[in-house]
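Sample intake sheet
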Amino acid sequence: MFFDRPDSGELAVLVHLDLSHGQAPEDPREFEELVLSAGGDPIALVGGQRAAPHAKYFVGTGKLEELQAVVKENGAELVIFNHTLSPSQERNLEQALECRVLDRTGLILDIFAQRARTFEGKLQVELAQLRHMATRLVRGWTHLERQKGGIGLRGPGETQLETDRRLLRGRITAIEKRLAKVRTQRNQGRRSRQRADIPTVSLVGYTNAGKSTLFNQITDAKVFAENQLFATLDPTMRRLEVPDVGALILADTVGFISHLPHKLVQAFRATLEEASNSSLLLHVIDAAAEERLHNIEQVEEVLAEIGAAELPELRVYNKIDLLGMEPRIDRDDHGKPIAVWLSAQTGQGVELLMEAISDALGREMVAGRLQLKPEQGRLRAKLYQQQAVADEQHGEDGSVLLEIRLPKSDLMRLLSAENLRYDELHWADGDDSGRIAC
């Protein structure tokens, strides 16, 4: 990948300031988990308060002196800020502290670089890293600010910095073209599913809410699932059969986080589009988390950014085993499911989730005993192809009595192919009341 990482954990000093400029504060506990997920070894947390960031160092001069002492005392190799730093602030801090300095965006990019497994995921991470690095190139070439010189290099050349910027622009353009091709392929697959009338259900939620564990519990996919931030980066899809819905595609997506860097949202747009084109979103929530409401707000913000805010959503409150709760379904005044409480780890309540998905995506169903004439054998065969027949009885006159259950839209399509109308069907004992709305 673009960044070379050391084999062992680096000694890191963490910096977290409470700023009173209107933005929601970051969580220092989540910050420490991010550092641990990146493979760092936090040795000290330096905190404080400021009305606004210092223009040159982000922290004040007094706090900078405190940082210098902590870094020297502990032999720290890295200082990580739980904030977004400007390129000049990073450069000034590195000169003052005499060690590497990383901000929150760079930290998340490093974690993503470790987690990417597929070719597409690696491309997306590299694109985000390159865009982030493009504004920070001057840090690496302060000793080569003059134009190149020497034999064969004299004349109207370009500075080393300009050369690197040109190479970066070329690499970014190449990656964007390849990701555009990936997006085209995803759109083709999506159109194929739409033509086949196969709905897509996407798992979304805050990082470490339990999406991959739930995905494995439902599909037996065995995707990587660990109690760490951003355990899943590459999207995984599986076909699933749900009662009264039929086949659907279940997609596991990358987790969101507070103030997710915009560079990542842009780079992962091809992946996130899968969620924005879903028939239903399963918003997985860590029910045991103290900051549950804040996490929900952050996920809703990212969904709005990718154009998925108006999609049908079913909230899935996970980890109820940590709260000692029983699984249940919450419904609105019309009986539609709005939330499911379950434990993906133990499997409690997963059957209720399947019931809720069926209710949320279910269409008007037809169920009853249908009587077919001998000349309607092709319709009988097609009903079997749809796996809609539960029982069959034969009459002495060659007719058949089928006990069927299938979506009305599927039945109407079969009738259209046979040039039949719905009101021409014959139900046993005049029973056309088998239609039920789901």
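Comment: Residues 1-8, 141-148, 153-157, 432-438 have pLDDT under 50 and may be disordered. Residues 190-361 form a domain with the Rossmann fold fold (CATH 3.40.50.300).
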